[in-house]
User: What shape does this take?
Amino acid sequence: AQKVTQAQTEISVVEKEDVTLDCVYETRDTTYYLFWYKQPPSGELVFLIRRNSFDEQNEISGRYSWNFQKSTSSFNFTITASQVVDSAVYFCALALYGQNFVFGPGTRLSVLP
Amino acid sequence: EAGVTQFPSHSVIEKGQTVTLRCDPISGHDNLYWYRRVMGKEIKFLLHFVKESKQDESGMPNNRFLAERTGGTYSTLKVQPAELEDSGVYFCASSQGTWDRTKETQYFGPGTRLLVL
Assistant: This one.
């Protein structure tokens, strides 16, 4: 069975600080897909990134970066120079091809001005 | 291109009543998923349609929940009769269903917030 752990329930930072959200996953399958979604106060789930298990390259998109390490089964998400608009609940999720997502419990990020 | 839409955005009903949630996936997406988040817990899978067929309904909590996707387009999720523990946010997601694995990403709707009193 698949499992996703996000150990940080809530994080508070001051604007312009860097923050890393942790995600640890469990699966016995060798082919799987990892995702991060953002849920702002408005409630919708916004897709941020998808990473395939066979692609361990890290990725940077603006102030966002993701560190995928199969050796530690982790897919951590870093926001550089955080902004108030980054305040949201962030979910990490794992899926096998064509199957449903297994979500982590989410990390609530509060960025204070 | 329109995203996944869900209706209603909010619903408040009394225990024992019936509620029907609707999801319109992204046009052309064969896969449609229902999830829910109850009481701030994890988002949990309910079921998965491939076109009009139920591919996986292992997450449906009990027989008070009935999902349909007639014609393989929009889907409805009916809760009858609703219980207090059904309160939560119900999300719908869709994906293209292509054999190109690099495109297999689920896009979520805004969710329906259900409150059963």
